[in-house]
DNA sequence: CAGCATCCTGGAAGATACTG
DNA sequence: CAGTATCTTCCAGGATGCTG
């Protein structure tokens, strides 16, 4: 039997979306989620619901603007739930939705991968730069 | 027994790196790899070795500059191997290294996740915007 | 506390032209 | 073919100040 090409395999997929295509919505979604703040915020929320200030503390170096923007986008895209308690001052708690949890399964691995493979990457850089 | 906090769990990990910290090298690595071009190039190379122009064709919309830059960074970080054949004109073939393959296991899922969950995200946006 | 509004800058990224 | 070099634009993202 003939070897299938990558293009054929893609065409055979059940998806209607293909992130290889610049105009495909999934390409924009990929752009959205392949972002360090998304990885870090999602990972933090994976440890359980957290308040705005807690997230800001754990995800060191994030500005309010970026944190709010990331949170809003994640909420809009259905990955994060925002719960507002009408205390004084207000208490806002963020948590993962089902969709967010499924994304975290992938994203969380990305953070772990970076941490686990740092030594190998450093070694590779040494080799590359020393040539 | 007491509930462990997220901070305690992190401290108990065997890693020397923690991407939550802004200054940690793994944070920079995370920034590097959480990038749409990295996802797309790595995924394409997952289908087997490919030449520069093949990658450029499959990954629609990437400029030479971005493609070269992405490829160089991936090579330097030990995820991609660059093979130059001294034909005229030269033939350059890129392929995944072991490290690159292990990263692809995570990254590839990211592209698939975006394609698979696009309908859900669109629905969530409709809900959010209609409020 | 959990934001929003505004201003501003560095660097990511596109366009274009050239080459071994 | 597989880049490099240069110019330019654009906006992500930081800083700052204010508020329900």
Tally the helices of chain A: what do you get? 7
Shape of chain A from CA axes?
A: globular
The helicity of chain A comes to 55-70%
The arrangement of helices and strands of chain A along the chain is HHHEHHEEHH
Distance from first to last alpha carbon of chain A: 44 Å
Largest contact between chains: A-B, 58 and 59 residues
Low-pLDDT segments of chain A: none
Order of the strands making up the biggest sheet of chain A: 1-3-2
Mean pLDDT across all amino acids of chain A: 91
As a percent range, the share of strand residues of chain A is 5-15%
Roughly how many Å is the radius of gyration of chain A?
19 Å
**Which structural class fits the helix and strand makeup of chain A?**
mainly alpha
Key structural traits:
homodimer; mainly alpha; DNA-binding; 131 residues
Could you outline the blueprint of secondary structure elements for this entry?
2 copies of one chain form a homodimer.
Chain A: H1 6-12, H2 25-33, H3 36-45, E1 50-51, H4 52-58, H5 64-76, E2 80-85, E3 91-96, H6 98-116, H7 118-129
Antiparallel strand pairs in A: 1-3, 2-3
Helix pairs in contact in A: 3-6
Chain A binds a DNA duplex (20 and 20 nucleotides) through helix 4 and helix 5.
């Amino acid at each position: 039997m003939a070897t299938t090409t990558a293009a054929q395999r893609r065409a055979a997929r059940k998806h209607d979306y293909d992130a290889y295509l610049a105009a495909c919505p999934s390409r924009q979604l990929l752009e959205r989620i392949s972002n360090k703040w998304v990885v870090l915020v999602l990972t933090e929320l994976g440890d359980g619901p957290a308040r705005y200030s807690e997230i800001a503390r754990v995800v060191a170096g994030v500005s309010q603007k970026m944190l709010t923007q990331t949170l809003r986008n994640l909420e809009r895209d259905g990955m994060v739930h925002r719960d507002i308690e009408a205390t004084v001052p207000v208490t806002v708690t963020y948590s993962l939705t089902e969709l967010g949890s499924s994304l975290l399964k992938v994203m969380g691995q990305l953070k772990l991968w970076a941490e686990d493979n740092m030594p190998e990457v450093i070694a590779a850089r040494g080799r590359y730069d020393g040539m």
